[in-house]
Amino acid sequence: MKNKKIIALVCAISMIFSMFASFTVVSAAEQGIALEIEQTTATKAVITAKAVGYPTGISSSKIAISVPEGATTAIACPMKSDAIMDTSIPGVASCTIGLMENTAVPNDVLAIFTVTMTEALPKNFKSELVSGSQIAAFANDTDEEPTLISVDKGTLNATSKWIEASKFEGTTVALNEKLSKDTAASLEADNENVKDVYVAYEAKKGNAAADYGTDYVAYYNGTQLTKDQLNAYLTGKFGSIADAIEKVTFTYKSGVAFNVQLVSVNSDDEAEVAESGTIGGGSTKPTPKPTPTPTAGVKVTADKTEISSDGSTRVNATVTDAEGATPGTEVKFTVSSGADVLDFDGATEATVALADGKASVRVYAKKVGTATVKAAYTYTDKDGAEQTKEGTVTIRVKNTTVGGGSGSDDKKPSGGGSIAGPSDSMNPGGNWLGAFTDLDSVEWAKPSILALSLKGIVSGRGDGTFAPNDNITRAEYCQILIGAIEKSAEYADSEFADVPSDAWFYHAVSVASKYGIVSGYGDGNFGPYDLITRQDMALMTYKAAQVMNKDLSAVRTMSFADAGAISAYAAEAVQTLADANIINGVSDTEFAPKANATRAQAAKILYDTFVKIN
To answer: β-pairing, 72-76 with 32-41?
Structure first.
């Protein structure tokens, strides 16, 4: 090549393409940009932009492509170390390479974009060039100045192309082709003899374990799952096992083989394989869940933990014995504190015979206040020594009944419908109704409510309304909080006496407790049906923000006239969120820390903290 001229970078890279305006825009049928897309994991794709058909090399370029909004995008520009990379425009990532000496290297890799999602990528993930993409190249060996080649989206050259991510194309098998949903439904309905039902599987590639996200993936109703989400469906965390068998499919590559089994655990903790099937010719059988060693204990719950001053509720005790122990025959209930608040129809103690490991007694309110009911169970251990285990539950008596109506703990409070269930949070938009009809009174919260509804984090009453001014319970706020920070697929166990394992809020409260977001009342209870106060809502949000490493830098200094009424345990949380412009007072001067939070307030604080992109 003759006297190749290095064209200096003038002032700033932003001037490069204004200089191109004087160049001739040409179209070459054999020239363009190819986008090659490879899905490397269930949540990550690599998009490589290559110059095609430029034998004399590339002088400069700007590659702008479409990426999913909210994705984390890393960019590498191999041609030039001082390239400008921009991800500031939602849904667009770009890489600009400055003017340089013609290298005469054809088909250069111009940019490599690594796109990472918080959820699984769509099965056919796509990306396209965005208007504004350009290449400057030398037309021949003797040219000293480059010629601008436009590769805008509207004039994309014929040889340029995008490639669908197809890493998981292969054989797809529906789970219901191997296991029967009817058998699973029958087992799940057998409450007397069957303790647990789940689907076990083990994937192999040769003699090694197959890699999820590389060798095989699973889908629920067509939506790709992470491995944690798959396990949640197959163990009943996100619904019935019959539903999982009906809607889960596996897609796997050649050479992958695995076995699936429908396992039932009877009341004696013995696992039995009800059905099994092989996929891809696999014959390796999964190991059933280990049978836990029984330990003695007493779990105490109440049908309602909050009653009216003229009401009553039933307190329930479920007991377990240690391995080899001689079971006891009765449970002694005692009002251990607050005997002036409630009693057992005039008595402070009641002894109830056990039936199938359970005993219950009704307690009656005497006046407004708080009382603790203790249940004590005595048995003989395997060494012949007498042992006693105890559990407690706290009952609050108020002037009027709120919360759980007359239902038991496994039901939502009356007027429910405020929470998106686990499966909804896996399918953003699943609850979207377009708009609610009753948001005119809360214009300040309307965008937040609609955004969270679109993501499936909150839902309405089912009649087109959201009821924004209704109060929200501690369990409801915990549920939407865990959805907002995208921890719904995680596992945890709760030790709160008033959070039974079959309650709709058990999973959310357990995960929140695992991360230290909630700690209950300090007496072993969480108070799921209690209406959440504004200061407690602020505290839960603040702790969740710390877990998620959210930036809560102060943007203002906020003061409240009633700051002295904020409880010490919540003061830092309220002040931090207020200074970060996330939470406001009920007026310009008052925070009202002990007032009950509304559904609109809950939506606004969650959106501003965890969803809104500032």
So the answer is: unpaired
3-state secondary structure at position 594: coil
Task: Tell me which H or E stretch contains 544.
Answer: helix 534-547
Please tell me the predicted confidence (pLDDT) of residue 542: 93
d(CA 487, CA 370): 33
Cα atoms found within 13 Å of the Cα of residue 383, Cβ hemisphere only: 2
What is the edge-to-edge ordering of all strands in the sheet holding 256-266?
Answer: 208-209, 194-205, 256-266, 271-279
Q: Where are the beta strands (DSSP E) in 228-368?
A: 248-252, 256-266, 271-279, 297-302, 306-308, 312-320, 330-337, 342-343, 349-353, 358-365
pLDDT digits (tens, 9 = 90+) for 105-149: 445 678 888 888 777 676 566 777 776 677 777 666 666 666 665
Sequence-ordered list of residues with C-beta below 8 angstroms from that of 394, at least 6 positions apart, any chain:
305, 370, 371, 372, 373, 498, 521, 523, 524, 525, 527
Tell whether pTM > 0.70. Answer: no
Nearest residue to 61 via CA among 97, 85, 106:
97
In the chain, the N- to C-terminal Cα span, in Å, equals 51
Question: How far lies 187's CA from each of 184, 199, 263, 285, 577, in Å?
Answer: 5, 12, 10, 21, 48
For residue 419, give the nearest of 603, 216, 177 by alpha carbon: 603
Pick the closest to residue 148 from 19, 1, 50, 35 (CA basis): 19
Q: What tokens were used for 401?
A: 């009944």
Residue in 416, 432, 317 with CA at minimum distance from that of residue 376? 317
Q: Which of 286, 292, 2, 33 is nearest to 140 (CA)?
A: 2
Q: Please list the residues that pair with 46 across neighbouring strands.
A: 38, 114
| Separation of CA 553 from chain center | 25
Q: Are strands 109-116 and 44-52 parallel, antiparallel or unpaired?
A: antiparallel
3-state helix, strand, coil in the chain (%, to 5): 20, 30, 50
Q: Give the residue with greater pLDDT, 160 vs 367.
A: 367
Contact 472, 415 (CB under 8 A): no
pLDDT at position 481, please?
92
CA distances from 456 to 152, 180, 453, 483 (A): 36, 30, 5, 9
pLDDT digits (tens, 9 = 90+) for 438-465: 888 888 888 888 878 777 788 776 667 8
Share of residues in the chain with pLDDT > 90 (%)? 8
In terms of DSSP H, where are the helices of 172-306?
Answer: 181-189, 227-234, 241-247
Q: Is 601 left (phi over 0), alpha (psi -120 to 50) or beta?
A: alpha
What are the structure tokens assigned to 24, written together? Answer: 């001739």
Under 8 Å between Cβ of 439 and 468: yes
Residue 151 near residue 157, CB atoms below 8 Å: yes
Tokens 């054989």, residue located: 171
Query: Rounded to whole angstroms, how far apart are CA atoms 213 and 216?
Result: 6
Place of tokens 């700007």: 62
Strands 161-162 and 32-41: parallel
Does residue 6 surpass a pLDDT of 50?
Answer: no
